[in-house]
User: Which sequence fits this backbone?
């Protein structure tokens, strides 16, 4: 670590750095953490508390760190390696236990990133000029992957119902479909709105896609961070037809805070779709990935369960902190997410334009959040706050916001 802020040192001393608390504070500024290093470029200052990019300011599980250390200690050769069947089986076991999704080994293959596999799947399953359905607001690379691969976006706005729950409108969506519409990019659970799509919603979407011969690319990277009483349902698991019609993108990056290992998997039950995808995959020649990522992946899915249970408890407690705070600050509306560690804050009552809203958060509150507009037109007036932090960091951030609002 090149530099350590004084604040960081004080926090380490006050809140412990000796591994007693899994969700302890760890100073990340001065490391190459994207969330911290890009502050100057994104927010014009190094002083904001960064709560934007979706990784956690929480240590990766001990079982992962230990497995990597052991591999380095006991086998000091880092040549080409393939991802072992036991690594895939670890993920298959996790998916069976946590999501009731029975995956066959041959359906799975490695890819370095979920976003990269979205691009690969788009190229494999559609032609230039074809249309791809994307719901707005959504994780920004959903838009760029479609545009950068010379396909057309069909934007379907998600709207809040009377209870503030985001919904798609299946009839309106049906009317947007043309003979050129070939793909639906589904975010399930959905970033940034935190929805866990219900069985009825997924069945309706699935039926529409089957009726119009539209393939589904379902990004399920957030599927393990789900809060009671919600349950994630992989759309591919709903019927034989949907199994054959869907490419599901999975990965341990969010679940175990190991995005830096660049490892994910693509699940393609249909032989025809798999062939098309593999052809595209071979063009970019990513091979089978990195030795230490394989080790980390297997360790996480094999031994990460108790850590994951505690993580979800910790994040639930953080949601309560935000809820309580928002009750006392009704100008910022918050509906607890059903999944993800991202709070989608409705700041419209502040009466600021999107530029002023962002400036307010950066300059007045000292907070680096993701502006709602970066997730699409429907995100106007919102800010996305990443609450995967130790509880006191969240409280400090909300205190800053409180002072800015009172100023
Ligand atoms: C919905 C969604 N998909 C994919 C990613 C990134 O995945 P990867 O780092 O594997 O490309 C993110 C990260 O925030 C995400 O929210």
Assistant:
């Amino acid at each position: 670590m090149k530099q350590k802020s004084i604040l960081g040192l004080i926090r380490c001393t006050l809140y412990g750095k000796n591994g007693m608390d899994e969700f302890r504070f760890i100073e990340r500024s001065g490391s190459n953490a994207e969330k911290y290093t890009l502050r100057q470029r994104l927010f014009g200052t190094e002083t904001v508390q960064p709560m934007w990019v979706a990784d956690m300011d929480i240590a990766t599980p001990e079982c992962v760190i230990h497995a990597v250390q052991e591999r380095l200690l006991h086998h000091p050769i880092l040549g080409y390696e393939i991802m072992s069947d036991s690594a895939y089986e670890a993920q298959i076991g996790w998916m069976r236990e946590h999501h009731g999704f029975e995956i066959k080994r041959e359906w799975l293959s490695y890819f370095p990133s979920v976003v990269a596999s979205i691009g690969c799947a788009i190229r494999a399953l559609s032609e230039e000029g074809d249309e791809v359905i994307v719901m707005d607001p959504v994780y920004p690379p959903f838009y760029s992957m479609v545009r950068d691969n010379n396909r057309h976006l069909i934007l379907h706005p998600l709207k809040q119902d009377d209870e503030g729950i985001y919904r798609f409108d299946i009839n309106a969506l049906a009317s947007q479909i043309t003979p050129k519409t070939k793909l639906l990019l589904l975010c399930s659970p959905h970033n940034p709105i935190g929805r866990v799509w219900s069985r009825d919603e997924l069945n309706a979407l699935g039926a529409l896609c089957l009726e119009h011969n539209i393939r589904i690319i379902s990004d399920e990277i957030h599927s393990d961070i789900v809060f009671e009483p919600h349950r994630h349902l992989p759309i591919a698991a709903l019927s034989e037809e949907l199994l054959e019609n869907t490419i599901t993108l999975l990965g341990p990056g969010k679940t175990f805070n190991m995005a830096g290992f660049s490892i994910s998997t693509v699940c393609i039950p249909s032989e025809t779709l798999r062939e098309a995808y593999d052809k595209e995959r071979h063009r970019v020649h990513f091979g089978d990935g990195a030795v230490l990522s394989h080790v980390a992946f297997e360790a996480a899915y094999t031994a990460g369960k108790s850590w994951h249970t505690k993580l979800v408890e910790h994040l639930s407690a953080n949601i309560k902190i935000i809820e309580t705070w928002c009750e006392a600050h009704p100008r910022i509306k918050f509906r607890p997410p059903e999944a993800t560690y991202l709070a989608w804050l409705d700041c419209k009552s502040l009466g600021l334009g999107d530029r002023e809203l962002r400036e307010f958060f950066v300059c007045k509150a000292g907070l680096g959040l993701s502006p709602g507009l970066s997730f699409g037109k429907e995100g106007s007036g919102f800010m996305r706050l990443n609450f995967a932090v130790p509880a006191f960091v969240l409280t400090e951030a909300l205190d800053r916001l409180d002072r800015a609002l009172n100023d």
